[in-house]
Design a protein that fits this description.
alpha+beta; Jelly Rolls; 7-stranded antiparallel sheet; about 55% helix
């Protein structure tokens, strides 16, 4: 009997922990689940329950470690395989994501999300035939899922099957006519195949359904530029009115800005998620980290406070707030932040931040030539490039400078040839999710 007591205790703790979490008592519930897992460390289910709490509290790195412990005890635990695939995909650890999704598919061939996730991975890896196979399998299991239909359409377009892709998007729109992203996707394909004018009605419909959507505003602004309708485009892509800068001269808890920036540089270059040219990102000739914001103290917490103060001031500017394309903030929102570490010759391709409302970059460290690695706004990425030279804004960075801009603004880093590393921390304000 005594030999069974630890197991019984663990089961009671685990049940109590789950009940506490269901009542919204996350801290108490988490403590109980941790105790249950400590008493019975070979229980994959207890660890899976604990990992779920990590996800609920936004601790994705902890969730990854806990799910990996699950799999050591039960290598075929499908929820752990599937969630690890999703988490690795979010962390841009694409190869690992693919391994977990494939194992989930092998364990349960009827799991829609595993096939869909594997399709996303293969598409990012440019293994497009495999991506299409995975999406088709997912679509056969969930024929009325508009997102799967959309993903399949995107992969078909990438291999040049644009007519099939258009047909798929149209089917997806019939399934979910109020889903703005589907109208935008259809507009992008028509923009690319038939010209900018063909995409505009679909961008307008997407914005009617989801005003302020970053991806759609970027696409519409680019279409207007390509059509020579620069005055209309300028109302959307208004660099002068909607880009704000702030030079910080003090950071609480640090003697001066050089000490603060050195602490940030050490944190960025030593971060365990720093990865050279992560697949699916625009960094070239350098590395990029995963999420930096979290329940930690130190320089990142101080930087978050400085950023939030600047964001509050951005939205408090009444002249800017009256601009028709100024980002809107209805709630405080969360911050996602990541560091980019560029070496000599490094740069970032033109991109925008489609998940955000307001985005920004803080400059930590620059190469010897202070003008190196300037940020340029206004040059779209393919397929949105214009036959004529776009109107751009160039900002030359310096340590301690913060630049804020609408998330839909196209921007890139100019390659630099100076010695030393260019370290910056970019971020998105994400609301309503």
């Amino acid at each position: 009997m005594r030999g069974s007591e630890p197991s019984a205790d663990a089961a009671a703790l685990n049940r109590s922990g789950i009940l506490a979490i269901q009542r919204g008592q996350l801290a108490e519930g988490r403590a109980m689940l941790e105790a249950a897992a400590a008493k019975q460390p070979t229980s994959a289910q207890y660890l899976a329950d604990l990992a779920q709490v990590h996800l609920m509290t936004g601790e994705e790195a902890a969730a990854i470690k806990t799910y990996q412990r699950c799999l050591k005890n039960d290598p075929g635990l499908v929820p752990a395989l599937l969630n690890l695939g999703i988490l690795m995909l979010r962390a841009f650890r694409i190869e690992e994501a693919g391994d977990y999704f494939q194992k989930a598919v092998d364990a349960d061939s009827g799991l829609v999300d595993a096939h869909a996730g594997l399709g996303v991975v293969r598409q990012r890896q440019k293994r497009l035939a495999e991506a299409i196979t995975a999406f088709e399998q997912a679509a056969s299991l969930a024929p009325r899922d508009p997102e799967i239909c959309s993903n399949l359409a995107g992969a078909l377009h990438e291999i040049g099957e644009s007519e099939k892709a258009i047909d798929r998007f149209q089917k997806a729109i019939k399934l979910a006519p109020k889903q703005a992203s589907l109208h935008r996707h259809l507009g992008v394909i028509l923009h690319e195949t038939d010209g900018a004018q063909a995409g505009l009605p679909h961008y307008d419909e997407a914005l009617r359904l989801l005003p302020g959507d970053a991806r759609t505003l970027a696409a519409k602004g680019s279409a207007l530029v390509a059509l020579g309708r620069r005055e209309e485009a300028a109302r959307i892509i208004d660099h002068d009115a909607l880009i704000a800068t702030r030079q910080f001269t003090a950071a609480p808890g640090y003697g001066d800005m050089s000490i603060f920036n050195r602490a940030l540089a050490d944190h960025a270059t030593g971060h365990p998620s720093l990865m050279a040219e992560p697949l699916g990102r625009t960094t070239r000739g350098g590395g990029q980290t995963g999420q930096l914001i979290g329940p930690t103290e130190g320089p990142i917490a101080v930087l978050e406070s400085l950023i939030r103060g600047a964001i509050d001031d951005y939205f408090a500017d009444q002249t800017r707030a009256q601009h028709p394309y100024c980002p809107r903030r209805s709630t405080a929102g969360r911050l996602d932040a990541w560091a980019t570490v560029l070496d000599r010759g490094g740069y970032q391709d033109s991109h925008n931040h489609p998940s955000g409302v307001l985005s920004g970059v803080y400059y930590v460290q620059l190469p010897e030539n202070g003008d190196s690695g300037a940020i340029e706004f206004g040059r779209p990425a393919p397929p949105f490039t214009s036959p004529s030279e776009p109107e751009v804004m160039l900002i030359r960075p310096q340590p301690g400078l913060l630049v804020l801009f609408p998330s839909f603004f196209w921007h890139r880093t100019i390659p630099f040839q100076s010695d030393g590393k260019r370290i910056s921390i970019a971020f998105d304000l994400i609301v309503g999710r």
